[in-house]
Design goal:
The protein has eight helices and ten strands.
């Protein structure tokens, strides 16, 4: 009978310490929601407006070698292309070296054109502004303006936390998670916090990665300089185990150590 009780206790502890599958599966259909594969999501692709510390990639090229010579430094030309290739080969942040950073006053500084106000503008609006400025100096040229990657910080229960860069103009929260080699098994996927910068200051948002309605949320897409924080589930603080096998192994090991200690004590007292 005692052995039966012990087995029941072991089973309860193993169940209590495990992380159930429903806590790890992304984009689940909640009660009353249709299956995910039957929904077509229409995203509100509102254009991101630039903020201080964002980096813009500006490329100006022309058949006229004189124009290329003017813009052959940080933002374009042969030197800029060499630096970009080095950044790609080294796996670093290439746009930190080749792009133009928005300063505290909201401006970027370009060769010939000087300081240009960009804070609060979309990438399309910046291109239009630069196009008008360049026309004052040159006739034949090609202008390319894009966001210099998406920089974000990942904290907490990621397999690869830290600062990361996605070299795209747009990325979803799942692409950011994939950049960090996914979340570990004890990550609380229902309460993921995103610290996001706004012109008026920083705000904290909470999203649920297990709920498929996230795909229709504006928070589905990350923004430059986001901080993503994922707390652990309580199973981690219990210190028993994440899977049933781990929990059972831990309990058996503890019980075995306890029995060995009791036997040793009894042997010494005889």
């Amino acid at each position: 009978m005692k052995l039966f009780y012990y087995l029941v206790i072991f089973a309860l502890l193993a169940t209590f310490g495990c992380v159930p599958k429903r806590k790890m599966v992304y984009l689940q259909s909640q009660k009353g929601q249709p299956p995910l594969d039957s929904i077509a999501f229409n995203y509100d692709r509102s254009h991101y407006r630039l903020q201080v510390n964002d980096i813009i990639d500006v490329q100006i090229t022309s058949p006229d070698e004189e124009i290329n010579r003017y813009f052959s430094g940080q933002g374009g030309g042969q030197q800029g292309n060499q630096m970009m290739r080095m950044g790609v080969q080294g796996g670093g942040d290439i746009y930190y070296m080749t792009g133009y950073s928005v300063n505290d006053s909201g401006y970027i500084s370009l060769p010939v054109l000087g300081d240009v106000k960009v804070e609060g503008f979309t990438i399309g609006e910046v291109k239009e502004t630069l196009d008008e400025r360049i026309k004052e100096y040159f006739k034949e040229y090609f202008l390319s303006v894009r966001l210099g990657g998406l920089r974000f910080a990942a904290l907490g229960e990621f397999n690869a936390p830290g600062k990361h860069v996605i070299l795209q103009n747009q990325a979803t929260i799942f692409e950011a998670i994939a950049q960090c080699n996914d979340l570990n098994m004890v990550a609380d996927r229902e309460n993921v916090r995103i610290i996001r910068q706004y012109p008026e200051g920083s705000k904290v948002h909470t999203i649920n990665l297990l709920d498929q309605s996230l795909m229709s949320s504006p928070l589905y897409f990350i923004q430059p300089n986001d901080v993503i924080y994922v707390e652990p589930l309580r199973a981690k603080s219990y210190g028993v185990g994440v899977t049933g096998a781990q929990t059972l192994t831990t309990i058996i090991s503890a019980v075995s150590s306890g029995l060995a200690l009791i036997i040793a004590v009894v042997s010494l007292t005889r």
